[in-house]
Amino acid sequence: MTQVVDAVRTLSVSLDERSYPIHIGPGLLGESRWLTPYLAGRQVMIVTNETVAPLYLERLKAGLSGELEVRELVLPDGEQYKSLEQVSRIWDALLEAGFNRRCTLIALGGGVIGDMVGYAAACYQRGVAFIQVPTTLLAQVDSSVGGKTGVNHPRGKNMIGAFWQPKAVLIDTATLATLPPRELSAGLAEVIKYGLIRDVAFLGWLEDKMAALRALDDEALVVAIERSCRLKAEIVAEDETEQGVRALLNLGHTFGHAIEAHQGYGNWLHGEAVGAGMAMAAELSRALGWLNEGDVARVQAIIESAGLPLEVPDNMNAEDFLSRMRLDKKNIDTRLRLVLLKSVGDACVFDATPSAMLHALLEDFPR
Ligand code: NAD
Ligand code: MG
């Protein structure tokens, strides 16, 4: 169900008593009515980072009205700070402030901040309220929806975490104005993914609107974010803890993770690696006879139009890919599980890819 109030669209993520709304619109940050109703009590801790704080912290605070005790904590910026050490700083600040179980944490920033603050909220006094205010496109369409929270461990990304749902997600599309274009493209990879795995009509709409999206047209952004959140929310509602259909959200990700890890995190953005990974998944789907050449060209065209790479790094051979792909969390036993396309707009999990076919793809894919 979608409701429209002014220019703001609201959809709801249905998870029984843990259901929550996602509000999407330009300029909603700073308007009290989108924030205040979701506070559990008077104690509020805003957590953000050094990049986002100077841009949006004051605007967010302007939207907090009433007799509140508001604290803020500004963490360093970067995936390398998505650590238990930084989460501990959040707990320290909460305890120093004497915050109780009715406090509310607000995550203002990209996926790194959202994942850490969600995890801090999941554990503080066995669980307190939190609100997501995602400010990257990736966080708006992906990481802020679904309740996965956590941090990295020196031995692996996202290895420590919990499922913990926010009380609300507030998406102000105007915050994307300051986002570096490369980060915008990385977020578009996940948007395209939703179309490819289960909404061919949305994919067609994206083909029309890609230029408007990259030019930050508010109307187009609101529609794209809403549809993406809705598709993710539907999948999450069907499969909250990833026993089945949620795996489809990993289209392009097994290949993509191999690229990210091999290149060193941060050199290729996650969304860039997923872009190339989706092109690889399309090619393998063609080799299996599911897609035709026109389908593959269509997939490539939309990835390229978002400003994402279609080629994989030339310093990676097939064995480099395979050794990384075997470590994927999604594998069962020793078989590689890949998300592939039955057709454009319809994905499936496949764990019987002939190894010669996979090897040929990895060897011959454009560098
Ligand atoms: P990020 O949080 O590192 O943000 C990217 C960069 O943009 C950072 O430098 C950040 O400070 C900056 N930034 C944020 N908002 C800005 C704005 N409005 N203007 C200018 N700069 C801004 O990265 P991300 O891509 O948002 O998120 C990636 C993280 O999300 C990863 O840690 C990943 O594991 C996680 N993730 C989680 C889920 C989930 O389901 N929980 C899903 C996908 C990704
Ligand atoms: Mg992803």
TrEMBL record:
What Gene Ontology molecular-function terms does this entry list?
3-dehydroquinate synthase activity; metal ion binding; nucleotide binding
Give start and end of each 3-dehydroquinate synthase C-terminal domain. Answer: 187-331
Q: Which residues participate in NAD(+) binding?
A: 77-82, 111-115, 135-136, 148, 157, 175-178
Q: Which cofactor does it need?
A: Co(2+); Zn(2+); NAD(+)
Q: Which reaction does it catalyse?
A: 7-phospho-2-dehydro-3-deoxy-D-arabino-heptonate = 3-dehydroquinate + phosphate
Top-level taxon in the UniProt lineage: Bacteria
Q: What is its EC number?
A: 4.2.3.4
Cofactor annotation comment: Binds 1 divalent metal cation per subunit. Can use either Co(2+) or Zn(2+).
Residues holding Zn(2+): 190, 253, 270
Location comes to:
Cytoplasm
Sorted alphabetically, the keyword list is: Amino-acid biosynthesis, Aromatic amino acid biosynthesis, Cobalt, Cytoplasm, Lyase, Metal-binding, NAD, Nucleotide-binding, Zinc
Q: What does this protein do?
A: Catalyzes the conversion of 3-deoxy-D-arabino-heptulosonate 7-phosphate (DAHP) to dehydroquinate (DHQ).
What is the name listed in the Swiss-Prot or TrEMBL entry for this protein?
A: 3-dehydroquinate synthase
Native source organism of the sequence: Vreelandella rituensis
Upper lineage is: Bacteria, Pseudomonadati, Pseudomonadota, Gammaproteobacteria, Oceanospirillales
